[in-house]
Each structure stands twice: as structure tokens, then as C-alpha cells.
Records
---
Amino acid sequence: MDEISPMRIPITMVFPPPSVSHATLVVFDEFDKTRTGRVPISLVGEMMKTLGEAPTLEDLEDAAIILDVEKNGHAPKTQFVDWCVQYRQVKRDARSVADQNRLIDARRSRQMTERDAELLRNRIHLLEREERRTLKRISEANRKAALMYERKKNANSKYIERHKFRSRRMKEMRTCREQNMVRKELSRAAKVRAESNMMHRKIKSANDVKSMSRNLAERKRRMEKEISDRNRRNHISVVRQRQRHLESKLKREQRRQEESEVEYRAKVVDEHVLQRMKRVHLSHLEEREASLIRRVENVRIMQTDALEGLCSVVATSPTDASLRDAGVKEKPMGEANR
């Protein structure tokens, strides 16, 4: 079965809230000493640090290329604000995708452990059923050997009847073996069909999940677009109110991010604990399987010994006059088996 790849969250451009744009404008005005609406490109790094960001050298080089639209070494206000918005959105989306991928990997590992445990339980059940069948065959073979041993002690007049009975019993055994083989083939075919149906159901459920995730992502993009349009239309009327609540909103946002990070770490820890528990359970099941395999091997050895004793009993003829004349007594079936 094909492995289902984790869903990748698309990075979409979402317009920032007016509070973030206002903070960027305030920092720009602080560095714009001449009030010309332009600042030198060399001050972009200090401006980003003032906004609480830590851009790398590559980010600053890209900013120098993007912001220097007039090729005079200065960045206009509008270009700087747009670039800051895009930079923050890209960094936020990158962190979100990395966290989502780690959680998906932990869940996938837990599902594989559960599937291995289920397969191991099925194998143990099959081994137990094989052990019961083998013990039943051994008891049947012992019963037949005892019956043949008792009949062998009768007179020569019953030799013909004993021979007919033995032939009839052998035919019944062959019939039983053939019926058992047919039942095994039917059970194997049923198992293959069940596995095929399960695979089809899993593929169908995976496709349903993919389509649902795509629909949710599309709906989310539409909602984000509507929200951004509504925010742009209402920006002028609510800008003063958002200026007063800028500090409180930033604090709430930081607190919410910390809570979400704590919750995510708790989920990851729970997934790892569950995975360790499943591994311990899997090791116990493997030990149980090894013990059952040893028991089946011992039972097979016992069956082989019983069949050898039966063959030795069948090979000895009751009409051997030389052995009776010599006074050789036949050993009981129990001693032959020992």
C-alpha cells in the first residue's frame, strides 16, 4: 500500500492587521530624520531589530535589491512597509509548516506500531490454532496405534478383517487430509479477499481526507480574502482605536502563541509516550510468539515419534510363525513410543 504523504500547508499572502503596519510606520518615521519618506538601505537591519525581528545577511541582501527601486541607495516608505509584511508572513508560515510536519511524523510512527501489533496478534492466533490441530492429530494417532495393537494379538482368522479395517481407516484419513487442505485453501482465499477489501477502504478513506483537506484549505483562503478585504475597507475608520489597543493586542498575541506552543509540546510528548508503550507491548508479543513456536516444534517432534512407532507396529506381521515359535513377545505400544 502506498504511503500517504503528509499534507503540506500552502503559504498564502494575508494582509496584516493595521496595528502591525502602524508599528512599522512608527519605526520608519523614527529613522527618517529628514522627513523625506526615504531611509538609507544600510539602516534596514537596525529598523528590523527595532521591530523585534532578526533578519539574516541573506535577508538583508534581498531587501537591498527589492527596496532600492530608484537605484539611489534609499528605501521608500511604502516599499519598506510591504516588504516587512511579506517577510513576517513568510517566517510565520515556515514555522507553522515545520511544527505540523513533526506532529504528522509522530502520528505516522504510532500508526505503524499499532499495525505491527495487530499483525503479530494474528500470527499468534494462527500458531495457537495450529498447536491445537497438531495435538488432536497426535491423540488420534495414539488411539489408532492402540487399537491396531489390540487387534494384532487376535488369532490369524481375524487377519483379513483387520486388513480391511486398516484399508478403510487409511482411506478415511486421506479423505480427512484432503478436506483439511480444501478448508485451508478456502481460509487463505478469504484472508486475501479481506486484506484486499481493507486496502481499498484505506485508500478510499485517504482520498476522502485529502479532498476534505483541500476543500477546507480553499474555504480558508476565501475567508481570509474576505477578511482582508473587509479590513482594508474599515482601516481608515478604526485606525485610531487600534493605536490605543496596540500594546494590549501584542501582549495577548504573545501569550496566545506561548499557550499554543506549550500545547503542541504536550501533544508531541504524549505521542512519544504512547509510541514507547506500543513498542513494549510489541516486544511482549514477540516473546510470546517465540515461546509458541518452540511449543509447536516440540509437538511436531512428538508427532514424528508417534508416527514412527505406528509404522513399526504396521510393519510387523501377525502371521510371523518364526517369532511365535521362538517365544518372542511383542512389546506394548507405550514402550515402543518411549
---
Amino acid sequence: MGKVAHYRDVTNLECDAVVHLRDGNYSLVEIKIGGDNLINEGAESLKKLRDKIDTTKMKKPSFLMVLIGIGEITYRRADGVYVVPIGCLKDLVICRGLQTFVLRKLLRLSQQFEDPSVGTGIFQRESRS
């Protein structure tokens, strides 16, 4: 098992989830609803953070991942960043804490949509009367 933490530095560079394992390995995860622009934004942020890490003092991240709320296919981008739909994590014991964290973040993100035509299924806003 491991721990999940959030990272933000003084320049406002942030990472939604840093997943630390007991063996010292860790990964950097950005959480996005989906869509090419948001996936690209998340990947760029992860790469920027990865490049700031002083690997003479700590290990480099095991992997970088943009975790998305909508989608069915996991893939690795040309830059090495994984794009993974949340549903693909359902069977991974190591990520249960991450799943709860991710679901809460996705719920907050989905509530930011002003246009009810954006998103589908559980990500649509409920009408307020």
C-alpha cells in the first residue's frame, strides 16, 4: 500500500496526487475530466514538475499519469505520459485511496460546468429549481 499527497510549490506548480509507495517509488498524477486540451494541460504540468525534481537527492517518478473521468482506453502518449480512465483503476488495490480522492475531485470539476450539454452521464449538472 501507499499514501496519496497533493503537491503545490511557491510558483503554483501543482500535482493533484503524488502516490508514494513504501519502497520509495512514487508517481505523479493529474486529474482531469477528459478532452484533448485538458489532457495536454495535465501532461505538460506533470512534465514541468518532473523536470524540477533533483534526481541527485531523490528518485525520479516511476511514471506520470493523467487520470480522466471519461473514457475506456488507457494509452501511453509519445511523451511517455499515461492517460488512464478512472474505471481502469477499479481492480487495483494500491489505488483505492486514490480512487476516493479522484472521485471527489471529478465531482468538484463536474460542478464547474455551466453548460449542461458538456459532459455525459454522472458528469451532467443537476438542474436547480
---
Amino acid sequence: MKKVVLIVLMSMTTLTYAQKILKMNQYTASNGVTYKIGDTVYLGRGYAQGRFVYVTMGGIMQSTNPYANQLPPTYAGGAAIIKKIKLYKYKAFRGVRFTVGLGTATNYIIDIENAIATCEVKPCLNDKYDKYDKLLKLKELLEKGIIDNDEYEQERKKLLIN
């Protein structure tokens, strides 16, 4: 009888755990990109003093020190290949995480929505503001005489089309 109760309890724990993590083949993120296993994710810039907060080391190389798991600024502009996509439904964390490879033996984890929100992944939600920053810089260059009016108009149109 004890064995039966133990087996039932173990299977209930397994079922509960399995329902809180769902494997996915693709995910459409808030930046409008539909990511699939095997796709490339492009890294932007680190969020905290150049370090990546939402792109972290995973797997057996993962440290108990969260700061040690953050990627250094040297990874900015890099590319990662998606290996797994998982939806987590825990109280402490609800969201989608990608397991990715960056060309090393270690796997890395991307908390995709937070990485998009902080521009650790491109395209990010702040890219639309980057466009207007570029327009302001372009106007500044025109006013300082560094570029002429034709160059200004040509570059302005390129920025507004994108």
C-alpha cells in the first residue's frame, strides 16, 4: 500500500511539473519576430553596465552567483542559435526562455521578452526610438555643415522608410 501511495504521489509531482514547463517549436515575441528552433537570435548590447542580464550562462557551467552567469559586453553584436524554446508557468517566473548556443560548448539562456525590452536582443522594442535619435543626430550634422542638404534628405528618407 505504501508503494502505491508513493508511486501516485511521485506521478502527481511529475505531472504538475510537466504542466508548468511547455516545450514549444516556435514563439512570436513582442518585437514581432516569430522565433523557431534553429533560428538565429542577434544580440544587442548589455543592459547593466554593458553586461547581459537576460542572456545568461546555463547548463553545467551555470554558477550559483547570478552575476557570474551574466555575459560580458564582448558578446554584444553576436549571434546565437536557438536549441530549445520553453514556456514557464511558475509563480516566480512566467515567460518564455530560449536555450541557445553561442559557438561554445556551454548553453546559454535568453529570457526573451526581458531581453527584447532592454535591447539585449535585436530587434528590440526601443528600436523605434533609436530611429528618432538618429534623425536628431542627422539634423545636427546638417546644422554643423558636416553633411549637405541632399545627403540629409537622402538619409532622412532611409530612416523614415524603415
